[in-house]
Amino acid sequence: MTQTVARKARVMSGMRPTGELHLGHLVGVLTQWAQYSETADAFFEIADLHAYTTDFEDPGKIRGARNAMVAAWLAAGVDPQKSTIFLQSGVPEICELETLLGMITPLSWLERVPTYKGQIEALGTQIATYGFLGYPLLQLCDIAIFRGEYVPVGRDQVAHLEFGREVVRRFNYLYGDGREILTEPQPTLSEFPEVPGTDGRKMSKSYDNAILIGDDEATTTQKVRGMLTDPQKIRRGDPGRPEICPLFALWRFVNPLKVDGVAAACRSGALGCVQDKTDFAEQLNEYLRPVRERYATYRDDPSLVERIVAEGTQRAREIASGVLVNVKHAMKLI
Ligand code: TRP
Question: Are the beta carbons of 104 and 171 closer than 8 angstroms?
Answer without folding.
Answer: yes
